[in-house]
């Protein structure tokens, strides 16, 4: 059986991080991918799956049930309902795959893909190292170089997150990052510096860094072309704030050194601690240092690895 023309539905709540994960896995199987953004009516929108019965009327979106998919790949709490509903309709005609811990019995799906740091296991659970993503070597290498820093200098990319449920990113922490950046730039003058904010980086953080560093670093202000792929392609090192498993996992795809700038926890997160410990033990990341050094590790391509496992298990009709 070949998969490359099979119809795959990817289902999320529309958040970019989840879209990257489902589409990253789907593109390993087929180019025939249909993205679906799902939304739920109250009270399903606020409750974990399993508390209430479900049917087609709990969804704000409608599903094209006449267009039978081969596979449904979902990610996130809100898409759990969609996967369960579609399985109840199509039965064994479809294969359902859920990414992330669904917080219900994994046997409700054909397969669950959960990161090692979730410590979630089961007969039909396949564990990943870090987060899945949509990056491929072709996407990075074929990216046009629309940014031209000093060609005689290697590039250090500083990838910055923002406030979330687990990490502080206050004005005080922003000032500490600025102080660190000034120090590392002064101690490593043979590099060009590219600062890339994420979707969670506030305008206040961007403006403070820009006003403090001036022309010592190029700062993308979320206007025009996103330089993220350029940085993945051309950087010698990455410095990434500790608040995003996705950004760190994507940098690990390049096989280049990844330094972690630790932000303080709002409250202790075992999941984040597990993630950072795992990546350090694998030799992917190191705590930030002013004395930058290179090292090698096997680049992560978890979407490809997991797709190869799934392909075999689907063909063998395991768990289906």
What does this protein structure show overall?
The protein folds into two domains: 8-129 and 302-315, Rossmann fold (3-Layer(aba) Sandwich); 138-287, Glycogen Phosphorylase B (Rossmann fold, 3-Layer(aba) Sandwich), CATH 3.40.50.2000. The protein is globular and about 60 Å long. The two termini are 16 Å apart. The chain has a six-stranded parallel β-sheet, sandwiched between helices. It has helices spanning 16-26, 77-90, 137-141, 171-187, 203-213, 228-234, 245-252, 270-281, 302-315, and strands at residues 8-12, 33-37, 71-75, 95-99, 111-115, 125-128, 154-160, 191-197, 218-219, 235-241, 258-261, 285-287. It has nine helices and twelve strands. With 320 residues, it is α/β, with parallel strands linked by helices. It is 31% helix and 18% strand.
Radius of gyration: 21 Å
* CATH class category label of the largest domain: Alpha Beta
CATH superfamily heading of the largest domain = Glycogen Phosphorylase B
Q: What's the overall geometry?
A: globular
Structural class: alpha/beta
The average pLDDT score comes to 93
Strand order of the largest sheet: 2-1-3-4-5-6
The portion of residues forming beta strands comes to 15-25%
Low confidence ranges? none
Number of domains: 2
The span between the termini is: 16 Å
Which second-level CATH architecture of the largest domain applies? 3-Layer(aba) Sandwich
Fraction of residues in helix = 25-40%
Number of helices: 9
Could you give the order of the helices and strands? EHEEHEEEHEHEHEHEHEHEH
Q: Biggest β-sheet, characterized?
A: 6 strands, parallel
> What is the fold-level CATH name, i.e. the topology of the largest domain?
Rossmann fold
Query: What is the total tally of β strands?
Result: 12
């Amino acid at each position: 059986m070949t998969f490359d023309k099979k119809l795959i539905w990817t289902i999320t709540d529309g958040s970019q991080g989840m879209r990257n994960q489902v589409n990253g896995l789907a593109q390993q199987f087929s180019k025939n991918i249909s993205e679906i953004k799902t939304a739920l009516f109250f009270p399903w929108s606020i409750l974990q799956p399993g508390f209430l019965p479900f049917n087609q009327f709990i969804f704000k979106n409608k599903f094209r049930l006449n267009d039978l998919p081969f596979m449904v790949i979902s990610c996130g709490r809100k898409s759990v309902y969609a996967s369960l509903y579609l399985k109840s309709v199509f039965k064994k005609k479809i294969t359902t795959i859920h990414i992330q811990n669904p917080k219900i019995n994994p046997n409700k799906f054909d397969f669950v893909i959960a990161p090692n740091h979730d410590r979630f296991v089961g007969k039909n659970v396949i564990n990943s190292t870090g987060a899945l993503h949509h990056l491929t070597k072709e996407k990075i290498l074929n990216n046009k170089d629309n940014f031209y820093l000093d060609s005689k200098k290697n590039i250090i990319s500083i990838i910055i997150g923002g406030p979330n449920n687990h990490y502080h990113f206050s004005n005080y922490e922003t000032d500490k990052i600025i102080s660190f950046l000034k120090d590392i730039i002064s101690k490593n003058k043979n590099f060009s510096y590219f600062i890339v904010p994420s979707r969670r980086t506030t305008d206040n953080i961007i403006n403070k860094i820009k006003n403090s560093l001036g022309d010592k670093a190029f700062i993308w202000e979320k206007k025009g072309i996103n330089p993220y792929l350029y940085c993945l392609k051309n950087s010698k090192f990455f410095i990434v704030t500790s608040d995003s498993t996705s950004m760190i996992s994507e940098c690990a795809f390049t096989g280049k050194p990844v330094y972690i700038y630790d932000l303080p926890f709002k409250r202790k997160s075992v999941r984040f601690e597990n993630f950072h410990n795992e990546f350090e033990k694998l030799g992917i990341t190191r705590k930030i240092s002013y004395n930058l050094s290179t090292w090698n590790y096997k680049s992560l391509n978890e979407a490809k690895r997991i797709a190869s496992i799934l392909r075999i298990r689907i063909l063998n009709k395991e768990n289906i």
